């Protein structure tokens, strides 16, 4: 996905609910909660607290692919 968008100059919009996939493939994350944008920024600015703000709670291990 990332390779294709970079090589071909395409913008790719993907709706992911797996945090580790978003962190691996995204350049930017837009996080929404209750229909409102609560985070919009580059992947380098994302912290655990960012996801707590988006989801309204701490992230559970089962929400991460490979999580226990």
Can you characterise this structure?
This protein is of the alpha+beta class and 68 residues long. The protein has one domain (2-63). The protein is built from three helices and two strands, in the order ααββα. Strands 1-2 form a two-stranded antiparallel sheet. Strand 1 and strand 2 form a beta hairpin. The protein is globular.
> What is the overall pLDDT average?
81
**Distance between the terminal alpha carbons, to the nearest Å?**
27 Å
Order of helices and strands: HHEEH
Number of strands: 2
Low-confidence segments, given as residue ranges, are: none
| Biggest β-sheet description | 2 strands, antiparallel
> What structural category characterises the helix and strand content?
alpha+beta
Radius of gyration: 13 Å
Quickly count the domains. Answer: 1
Query: Roughly what percent helix?
Result: 25-40%
Strand content: 15-25%
Q: Which overall shape is indicated by the principal axes computed on the Cα atoms?
A: globular
What spatial order of strands do you see in the largest sheet? Answer: 1-2
